[in-house]
Amino acid sequence: MSAPDPTTHVRVDLTRFDENLRAVRARVAPAETMFVVKNDAYGHGADVLVPRAVAGGIRWIGALDIEAALHVRRIAGDDVRVFAWLLSARDDLAAADAAGLDLGVGDRAILEAAASAATARPMRVHLKIDTGLNRNGVRAEDWEAFVARAAELQNEGRIRVEGVWSHISEASDADDDEARARFDSAVAAAESAGLAPEFRHLAASAASFLRDEFRYDMVRVGAFVYGISPSGGPHESELGISPVMSLRTRVVDVRDGRAVLPLGAWHGVPSTAAGKTTVGVHGAARQVDRIERDWMTVLCPDARPGDLVVLWGPGDDGEPTATRWAEAVDTIGEEIVLKVDRRIPRLYR
């Protein structure tokens, strides 16, 4: 007989993950899909999901920083490309070179440091242009000199420019169109400097799904693979994805028509959501009443101790999604799943 599930746990639905991954790859093809696993695969567990994604055909993984990228390299093997972009000149760039990582470089000092660290082979770099988001990219007025220096370093055999990339805000179509025009100009300038980047990548989840002109050669997708839709945007069913994570617990007491749950702000449940959202009990939505440090209450007079409660998930038990919780407190779904206490067990089904 198998052991019962812990009273409070996170369930990670591997079947939904596989389906989301297939849906994303089909939607953005022929562009390559980079599967983004920052923050331990958005709290879902990179050690489990990275090998599964590779088995599902993923050839690129985005891992945020060098430490995370080296871990991904160990669990994914040598047949995939691993991209890290949150860098400083003080990072262990020699280890990145030895592991064959791809580095997103948006700063002259980091470019020079990466070139100096390359010993095993030319360092693979992707040059980042700031297209208006002001997120650690090279400004337009400095770009021409930057790509000229990159071309010199490539000719010396110290780096290999694999790509040009950027982030966009996804705040409005007009803002994103302006960013795309800046990106195209940056690519043209890189090519004029003698570079031939194989991979142009600009879009993340939303833009990659909704605007095919933003796909270029590769897209970086995190949220949608986990089934997290954008706050205020299309719902999961409209996108053809489904939430992979559900946060589950059980009623420990019932007082004055309120079910008491052993979860609270200390576990990552946002206290400001009290009175603004629901959970799933007995297959129906029930109003959240209070959220304290290590407990919360739900309006559910017919609850009994031991009853299953699902705070958020795909909706199978009447619960809202993480994105609906996020909208209640004016944030994004990624923030909701990332804040779940890592000490809560993850169960993979």
UniProtKB/TrEMBL annotation:
Question: Any idea which UniProt keywords this protein has?
Answer: Isomerase, Pyridoxal phosphate
GO MF annotations in UniProt: alanine racemase activity; pyridoxal phosphate binding
Q: Which InterPro entries match?
A: Ala_racemase, Ala_racemase/Decarboxylase_C, Ala_racemase_C, Ala_racemase_N, PLP-binding_barrel
Looking at the keywords, is Isomerase present? yes
An example Gene Ontology cellular component term from the record?
Answer: cytosol
PANTHER family membership: ALANINE RACEMASE (PTHR30511), ALANINE RACEMASE, CATABOLIC-RELATED (PTHR30511:SF0)
* Name recorded for this polypeptide: Alanine racemase
